[in-house]
Amino acid sequence: MKGNEAIGEAAIRAGCLNYFAYPITPQSEVAEYLSKRMPEAGGVFLQGESEVAVSYMIFGAAAAGARVFTTSSSPGISLMSEGISYIAGAQCPAVFVNIMRGGPGLGGILPSQADYLQATKGIGHGDFRLLVMAPASVQEAVEMVMEAFPLAEKYRNPVMILGDGLIGQMMEPVEFPENFSVEPSNKDEWATNGMDTRKSDQRNLVKSLFLDPEMLNSHNNVLREKYERMKREEIRFENYNTDSDYNVLLVSYGTMSRVCRTAIDQLKSEGFEVGMIRPLTLYPFPEKAVEDAASKESCTSVASIEMSMGQMVEDVERSVRGKKPVQWFGKCGGEVPTPEEVIEFIKSL
Fold first, then answer.
1. Does 243 lie in the same domain as 189?
2. Would you tell me which of 137, 165, 239, 345 could form a disulfide with 329, CB atoms 3.0–4.6 Å apart?
Protein backbone atom coordinates (compact mmCIF):
# COMPACT_ATOMS: atom_id res chain seq x y z
CA MET A 1 0.00 0.00 0.00
CA LYS A 2 0.95 3.61 -0.38
CA GLY A 3 2.06 4.97 2.98
CA ASN A 4 -0.65 7.61 3.29
CA GLU A 5 -3.41 5.13 2.49
CA ALA A 6 -1.97 2.55 4.88
CA ILE A 7 -1.99 5.16 7.67
CA GLY A 8 -5.70 5.78 7.07
CA GLU A 9 -6.54 2.09 7.06
CA ALA A 10 -4.47 1.51 10.20
CA ALA A 11 -6.50 4.11 12.10
CA ILE A 12 -9.78 2.44 11.17
CA ARG A 13 -8.46 -0.97 12.22
CA ALA A 14 -7.42 0.59 15.53
CA GLY A 15 -11.04 1.52 16.17
CA CYS A 16 -10.80 5.19 15.21
CA LEU A 17 -13.94 6.20 13.31
CA ASN A 18 -13.50 9.98 13.44
CA TYR A 19 -11.18 11.76 11.01
CA PHE A 20 -11.19 15.53 10.57
CA ALA A 21 -8.59 17.09 8.27
CA TYR A 22 -7.62 19.74 5.77
CA PRO A 23 -5.62 18.79 2.65
CA ILE A 24 -1.93 19.65 2.30
CA THR A 25 0.84 18.00 0.30
CA PRO A 26 2.43 15.45 0.80
CA GLN A 27 -0.26 13.73 2.92
CA SER A 28 -3.50 14.57 1.09
CA GLU A 29 -3.96 10.94 0.03
CA VAL A 30 -4.90 10.08 3.61
CA ALA A 31 -7.96 12.30 3.33
CA GLU A 32 -8.68 11.11 -0.19
CA TYR A 33 -8.59 7.49 0.97
CA LEU A 34 -10.65 8.07 4.13
CA SER A 35 -13.28 10.19 2.36
CA LYS A 36 -14.42 6.89 0.84
CA ARG A 37 -13.22 4.34 3.39
CA MET A 38 -14.39 6.01 6.62
CA PRO A 39 -18.11 6.05 5.68
CA GLU A 40 -17.79 2.40 4.58
CA ALA A 41 -16.57 1.58 8.10
CA GLY A 42 -19.42 3.50 9.71
CA GLY A 43 -17.24 6.43 10.69
CA VAL A 44 -17.17 10.18 10.14
CA PHE A 45 -14.99 11.97 7.59
CA LEU A 46 -15.09 15.75 7.75
CA GLN A 47 -12.95 18.26 5.90
CA GLY A 48 -12.68 21.40 7.99
CA GLU A 49 -12.47 24.92 6.61
CA SER A 50 -8.93 25.24 8.00
CA GLU A 51 -6.36 23.44 10.11
CA VAL A 52 -7.26 25.71 13.03
CA ALA A 53 -10.87 24.56 12.84
CA VAL A 54 -9.80 20.94 12.54
CA SER A 55 -7.79 21.11 15.77
CA TYR A 56 -10.87 22.23 17.71
CA MET A 57 -13.11 19.62 16.07
CA ILE A 58 -10.59 17.08 17.36
CA PHE A 59 -10.70 18.71 20.82
CA GLY A 60 -14.48 18.34 20.92
CA ALA A 61 -14.53 14.71 19.81
CA ALA A 62 -11.65 13.78 22.13
CA ALA A 63 -13.31 15.51 25.10
CA ALA A 64 -16.41 13.41 24.45
CA GLY A 65 -14.32 10.23 24.63
CA ALA A 66 -14.24 9.37 20.93
CA ARG A 67 -11.15 8.02 19.20
CA VAL A 68 -10.15 10.77 16.77
CA PHE A 69 -7.17 11.65 14.63
CA THR A 70 -5.94 13.89 11.87
CA THR A 71 -3.10 14.01 9.39
CA SER A 72 -1.32 17.08 8.09
CA SER A 73 2.05 18.40 7.02
CA SER A 74 4.38 20.97 8.48
CA PRO A 75 2.57 24.34 7.97
CA GLY A 76 -0.74 22.67 8.79
CA ILE A 77 0.59 21.33 12.09
CA SER A 78 1.77 24.86 12.92
CA LEU A 79 -1.78 26.11 12.51
CA MET A 80 -3.06 23.32 14.76
CA SER A 81 -0.53 24.07 17.50
CA GLU A 82 -2.87 26.25 19.57
CA GLY A 83 -5.54 23.56 19.58
CA ILE A 84 -2.98 20.88 20.41
CA SER A 85 -1.96 22.90 23.48
CA TYR A 86 -5.61 23.07 24.59
CA ILE A 87 -6.02 19.32 24.07
CA ALA A 88 -2.88 18.57 26.08
CA GLY A 89 -3.87 21.03 28.79
CA ALA A 90 -7.32 19.47 29.09
CA GLN A 91 -5.76 15.97 29.13
CA CYS A 92 -7.63 14.59 26.14
CA PRO A 93 -6.32 11.71 23.99
CA ALA A 94 -5.87 12.37 20.27
CA VAL A 95 -3.52 11.31 17.48
CA PHE A 96 -1.78 13.67 15.06
CA VAL A 97 0.21 12.46 12.05
CA ASN A 98 2.72 14.88 10.53
CA ILE A 99 4.08 13.87 7.12
CA MET A 100 6.83 16.47 7.02
CA ARG A 101 7.80 18.70 4.11
CA GLY A 102 10.64 21.19 3.80
CA GLY A 103 10.50 24.66 5.34
CA PRO A 104 10.54 27.25 6.78
CA GLY A 105 7.49 29.07 5.45
CA LEU A 106 5.85 27.35 2.52
CA GLY A 107 9.24 25.82 1.75
CA GLY A 108 8.68 22.90 -0.62
CA ILE A 109 6.62 19.74 -0.89
CA LEU A 110 9.50 17.24 -0.86
CA PRO A 111 10.50 15.09 2.15
CA SER A 112 12.17 16.63 5.18
CA GLN A 113 12.75 16.09 8.91
CA ALA A 114 12.65 19.80 9.69
CA ASP A 115 9.83 19.57 12.25
CA TYR A 116 11.83 17.67 14.88
CA LEU A 117 12.11 20.65 17.22
CA GLN A 118 8.47 21.57 16.69
CA ALA A 119 7.26 18.08 17.58
CA THR A 120 9.57 17.43 20.52
CA LYS A 121 9.99 20.87 22.08
CA GLY A 122 7.84 23.60 20.56
CA ILE A 123 4.47 22.34 19.30
CA GLY A 124 2.50 25.02 21.15
CA HIS A 125 2.37 27.39 24.09
CA GLY A 126 2.67 26.31 27.71
CA ASP A 127 4.36 23.51 29.64
CA PHE A 128 3.33 20.35 27.80
CA ARG A 129 4.77 17.51 25.75
CA LEU A 130 3.62 15.11 23.08
CA LEU A 131 4.61 11.47 22.90
CA VAL A 132 6.34 11.40 19.50
CA MET A 133 7.06 8.28 17.44
CA ALA A 134 9.04 8.13 14.19
CA PRO A 135 8.51 5.29 11.67
CA ALA A 136 11.13 4.27 9.12
CA SER A 137 8.83 2.23 6.87
CA VAL A 138 5.20 1.96 5.85
CA GLN A 139 4.88 -1.14 8.05
CA GLU A 140 6.19 0.77 11.06
CA ALA A 141 3.87 3.68 10.27
CA VAL A 142 0.93 1.28 10.39
CA GLU A 143 2.02 -0.27 13.66
CA MET A 144 2.76 3.08 15.30
CA VAL A 145 -0.56 4.59 14.23
CA MET A 146 -2.44 1.63 15.67
CA GLU A 147 -0.41 1.79 18.87
CA ALA A 148 -0.83 5.55 19.17
CA PHE A 149 -4.51 5.40 20.14
CA PRO A 150 -4.15 3.24 23.28
CA LEU A 151 -1.03 5.24 24.22
CA ALA A 152 -2.98 8.49 23.88
CA GLU A 153 -5.67 7.03 26.14
CA LYS A 154 -3.15 5.60 28.62
CA TYR A 155 -1.69 9.06 29.21
CA ARG A 156 -4.72 11.16 28.24
CA ASN A 157 -2.38 13.10 26.01
CA PRO A 158 -1.88 13.82 22.30
CA VAL A 159 0.45 11.44 20.45
CA MET A 160 2.23 12.45 17.24
CA ILE A 161 3.51 10.20 14.48
CA LEU A 162 6.35 12.08 12.81
CA GLY A 163 6.99 10.81 9.31
CA ASP A 164 8.24 12.48 6.14
CA GLY A 165 7.10 12.75 2.55
CA LEU A 166 8.81 9.50 1.58
CA ILE A 167 6.94 7.54 4.27
CA GLY A 168 3.67 8.96 2.97
CA GLN A 169 4.32 8.58 -0.75
CA MET A 170 6.21 5.29 -1.17
CA MET A 171 4.55 1.90 -1.55
CA GLU A 172 5.63 -1.12 0.52
CA PRO A 173 4.09 -4.43 1.59
CA VAL A 174 1.95 -4.09 4.73
CA GLU A 175 0.55 -6.53 7.27
CA PHE A 176 -2.06 -5.17 9.67
CA PRO A 177 -1.77 -6.50 13.23
CA GLU A 178 -4.69 -8.72 14.22
CA ASN A 179 -6.45 -9.11 17.58
CA PHE A 180 -5.91 -5.42 18.27
CA SER A 181 -7.91 -3.95 21.14
CA VAL A 182 -10.18 -1.24 19.72
CA GLU A 183 -12.11 -0.31 22.86
CA PRO A 184 -11.12 3.05 24.37
CA SER A 185 -10.10 2.73 28.01
CA ASN A 186 -11.50 4.42 31.13
CA LYS A 187 -13.25 7.22 29.25
CA ASP A 188 -16.23 7.19 31.63
CA GLU A 189 -13.93 8.49 34.37
CA TRP A 190 -13.30 11.82 32.64
CA ALA A 191 -15.03 12.21 29.25
CA THR A 192 -18.06 14.44 28.60
CA ASN A 193 -19.87 11.47 27.08
CA GLY A 194 -23.18 11.98 28.90
CA MET A 195 -24.38 11.23 32.40
CA ASP A 196 -27.01 8.82 31.05
CA THR A 197 -24.34 6.98 29.09
CA ARG A 198 -22.26 6.55 32.23
CA LYS A 199 -25.33 5.95 34.42
CA SER A 200 -23.93 8.59 36.74
CA ASP A 201 -25.26 11.65 38.52
CA GLN A 202 -21.83 13.34 38.35
CA ARG A 203 -20.84 15.71 35.58
CA ASN A 204 -17.45 15.34 33.91
CA LEU A 205 -15.71 18.62 33.16
CA VAL A 206 -12.95 18.93 30.57
CA LYS A 207 -10.99 22.18 30.72
CA SER A 208 -7.55 23.75 30.45
CA LEU A 209 -8.42 26.99 32.25
CA PHE A 210 -7.02 27.40 35.79
CA LEU A 211 -7.19 31.04 36.89
CA ASP A 212 -5.91 30.31 40.38
CA PRO A 213 -2.07 30.22 40.17
CA GLU A 214 -1.75 27.49 42.78
CA MET A 215 -4.25 25.31 40.93
CA LEU A 216 -2.46 25.91 37.62
CA ASN A 217 0.88 25.03 39.20
CA SER A 218 -0.63 21.87 40.67
CA HIS A 219 -2.15 20.97 37.29
CA ASN A 220 1.22 21.39 35.57
CA ASN A 221 2.86 19.16 38.16
CA VAL A 222 0.30 16.48 37.31
CA LEU A 223 1.23 16.84 33.65
CA ARG A 224 4.94 16.75 34.47
CA GLU A 225 4.56 13.46 36.31
CA LYS A 226 2.80 12.09 33.23
CA TYR A 227 5.78 13.01 31.05
CA GLU A 228 8.18 11.49 33.57
CA ARG A 229 6.15 8.29 33.41
CA MET A 230 6.52 8.34 29.62
CA LYS A 231 10.29 8.48 30.12
CA ARG A 232 10.12 5.46 32.41
CA GLU A 233 7.81 3.32 30.29
CA GLU A 234 7.79 4.37 26.63
CA ILE A 235 11.39 4.93 25.43
CA ARG A 236 11.96 2.85 22.30
CA PHE A 237 14.95 2.52 20.00
CA GLU A 238 16.78 0.11 17.70
CA ASN A 239 20.44 -0.85 17.81
CA TYR A 240 22.22 -1.54 14.53
CA ASN A 241 25.71 -3.04 14.38
CA THR A 242 26.40 -1.93 17.95
CA ASP A 243 27.78 -5.35 18.90
CA SER A 244 30.89 -4.57 16.79
CA ASP A 245 33.95 -2.53 17.78
CA TYR A 246 32.69 0.52 15.94
CA ASN A 247 34.72 3.71 15.70
CA VAL A 248 31.79 5.95 14.78
CA LEU A 249 28.29 5.94 16.26
CA LEU A 250 25.43 7.34 14.17
CA VAL A 251 22.12 8.54 15.55
CA SER A 252 19.42 8.73 12.90
CA TYR A 253 15.67 8.20 12.61
CA GLY A 254 12.95 7.69 10.04
CA THR A 255 13.81 7.55 6.35
CA MET A 256 17.33 8.86 6.97
CA SER A 257 18.11 5.85 9.15
CA ARG A 258 17.46 3.58 6.17
CA VAL A 259 20.11 5.42 4.18
CA CYS A 260 22.49 5.12 7.15
CA ARG A 261 21.85 1.40 7.38
CA THR A 262 22.89 0.98 3.75
CA ALA A 263 26.01 3.07 4.36
CA ILE A 264 26.91 1.02 7.46
CA ASP A 265 26.58 -2.24 5.53
CA GLN A 266 28.78 -0.92 2.69
CA LEU A 267 31.42 0.35 5.13
CA LYS A 268 31.42 -3.00 6.94
CA SER A 269 32.25 -4.76 3.68
CA GLU A 270 35.23 -2.39 3.36
CA GLY A 271 36.42 -3.12 6.91
CA PHE A 272 35.03 -0.03 8.64
CA GLU A 273 32.80 -0.63 11.66
CA VAL A 274 30.02 1.89 12.31
CA GLY A 275 27.16 1.50 14.81
CA MET A 276 23.78 3.21 14.90
CA ILE A 277 21.09 4.02 17.45
CA ARG A 278 17.74 4.61 15.78
CA PRO A 279 15.23 6.37 18.06
CA LEU A 280 11.71 5.03 17.60
CA THR A 281 10.44 7.56 20.13
CA LEU A 282 11.74 11.10 19.66
CA TYR A 283 10.02 12.12 22.88
CA PRO A 284 10.91 10.57 25.17
CA PHE A 285 14.37 10.43 23.58
CA PRO A 286 16.56 7.34 24.24
CA GLU A 287 19.24 9.31 26.09
CA LYS A 288 20.63 6.38 28.08
CA ALA A 289 20.95 4.18 25.00
CA VAL A 290 22.89 6.87 23.14
CA GLU A 291 25.09 7.57 26.18
CA ASP A 292 25.91 3.88 26.65
CA ALA A 293 26.69 3.39 22.96
CA ALA A 294 28.88 6.51 22.84
CA SER A 295 30.76 5.34 25.95
CA LYS A 296 32.10 2.24 24.20
CA GLU A 297 35.90 2.29 24.28
CA SER A 298 36.31 1.81 20.53
CA CYS A 299 33.98 4.72 19.71
CA THR A 300 35.82 7.95 18.91
CA SER A 301 33.05 10.07 17.39
CA VAL A 302 29.26 10.43 17.32
CA ALA A 303 27.26 11.85 14.41
CA SER A 304 23.65 12.95 14.10
CA ILE A 305 22.52 12.24 10.53
CA GLU A 306 19.33 14.07 9.58
CA MET A 307 17.18 15.50 6.80
CA SER A 308 17.30 18.84 8.62
CA MET A 309 19.82 21.49 9.61
CA GLY A 310 20.82 19.62 12.76
CA GLN A 311 17.65 19.77 14.84
CA MET A 312 18.36 16.51 16.69
CA VAL A 313 21.96 17.45 17.54
CA GLU A 314 20.97 19.04 20.87
CA ASP A 315 19.39 15.82 22.10
CA VAL A 316 22.34 13.75 20.91
CA GLU A 317 24.83 16.09 22.60
CA ARG A 318 22.85 16.04 25.83
CA SER A 319 22.79 12.25 25.72
CA VAL A 320 26.53 11.88 25.00
CA ARG A 321 27.30 14.24 27.93
CA GLY A 322 30.57 15.47 26.48
CA LYS A 323 32.19 12.01 26.46
CA LYS A 324 32.80 12.09 22.69
CA PRO A 325 32.70 14.82 20.02
CA VAL A 326 29.33 15.10 18.27
CA GLN A 327 29.12 15.99 14.58
CA TRP A 328 26.20 16.67 12.25
CA PHE A 329 25.57 15.75 8.63
CA GLY A 330 22.45 16.22 6.57
CA LYS A 331 20.47 18.10 4.00
CA CYS A 332 17.14 19.89 4.12
CA GLY A 333 14.53 20.95 1.61
CA GLY A 334 13.81 17.70 -0.16
CA GLU A 335 17.27 16.37 -0.98
CA VAL A 336 17.87 13.05 0.73
CA PRO A 337 21.57 12.40 1.42
CA THR A 338 22.75 9.35 -0.50
CA PRO A 339 24.55 6.38 1.09
CA GLU A 340 27.69 7.49 -0.79
CA GLU A 341 27.52 10.97 0.77
CA VAL A 342 27.04 9.49 4.23
CA ILE A 343 29.97 7.13 3.66
CA GLU A 344 32.21 10.02 2.57
CA PHE A 345 31.24 11.99 5.68
CA ILE A 346 31.88 9.03 8.01
CA LYS A 347 35.31 8.41 6.47
CA SER A 348 36.16 12.07 7.06
CA LEU A 349 35.72 11.41 10.78
1. no
2. 345
